[in-house]
Amino acid sequence: MNKFKTFLKNTITVMLVQSLKLLRFMPLPAIHTLSVFIGILNYVFNSDRRAHAKRNLMQSRLVTDALALEKMLFKSALENSKGVFESFAIWFKAQTETLAWVKDVKGWPAVEMALLEGKGLIFITPHLGCFEITSLFYGSHHPIAVLYRSPRQPWLLPLINAGRQRGGVSLAPANGHGVKQLLQALKRGQAIGILPDQAPLEGEGEWAPFFQRPAYTMTLASKLAGKTGAQVFMAFGERLSFGRGYYIHIRPIVAGGIDTPALLNAEIENTIRQCPTQYLWGYDRYKDRQQNSPANH
Q1: Which of 77, 80, 142, 261 has the fewest C-beta atoms lying within 10 Å of its C-beta?
Q2: Per-residue pLDDT, 297
Q3: Boundaries of every domain in the chain
Q4: What sign does the CA torsion over 154, 80, 100, 104 have?
């Protein structure tokens, strides 16, 4: 019986992967159109996720009117669905084809100037817009090491490794060895990429307000910046309507601008305000990491 369950699970996984690979034949407008239909279904039937996203969005106080809240929640569900399917498409398509989706890069001259200083660059990219396109674009010009955490579904790992490690992009696991990789890259004057709003493991962060509520926040980016003197940048890929592509926004953060978790969260909040419907509100940003966490009081 166990062998049959294993066989069935493996068969379903293979079929799912092969189905997702069909996305490489689709243009971006078609991918986003498909995503909208699936996003609507997810919004209607996944009540638990919808409720969780609604709580986080209400916590942000970006909208106070009930009708405006529901509209943003609905739009966010569609944008998040686009994010899932476009990620698979980016992994499976040729790099030259996906890079053609980048219509503009705002702030690139500041990146080139920082590279000349030779102290390295730290890109912090929240779960906002298309975060797959940012590292892929940078990696087509210069080397970058991106911190990642292994997915809960093992079948995703080989797809992530193959899809993200292209051009000058290398992956660094979220452990001691990976942190050493990041530090070495910075010492070589290269760039690293970090998702700053991912809840760190216990002992790897501090509690700080995120939209007025305590959230366990990473300290890694500020520590690396302090050790190396690297220039810190906020970066995200704004998803354009009707599958027109992306604008990549890159903004330098002043020295000391992320020295504390509270300062880091303030920078993330300001970035989210640029495209609030494209933020991953369903992510559990307020996970408890300690028994006596501020979130429990």
Answers
A1: 142
A2: 36
A3: 2-280
A4: negative
Compute the chain's Rg from CA coordinates: 19
- Total count of residues recorded for the chain: 297
Tell me the residue type at 231: Q
Please tell me the distance from the alpha carbon of residue 265 to that of residue 258, in angstroms, as a whole number. Answer: 8
Return the residue matching tokens 């940012």. Answer: 134
d(C-alpha 58, C-alpha 55), whole Å: 5
Prediction pTM value: 0.92
- What single letter denotes the amino acid at residue 192? I
Structure tokens at 250: 């890159």
Run of H or E including 14: helix 2-21
> Nearest 5°: CA angle at 33, between 27 and 37?
145
Strands 121-124 and 169-173: unpaired
Cα–Cα distance, 252 to 24 (Å, whole number): 34
Structure tokens at 237: 């890929």
Encoding tokens for residue 246? 């992306």
Give the separation between CA 71 and CA 145, rounded to whole angstroms: 37
Residue 16: which residues within 8 A CB-CB, separation 6 or more?
A: 155
Distance between CA atoms of residues 49 and 59, nearest Å? 15
Cα–Cα dist 147/139, whole Å: 14
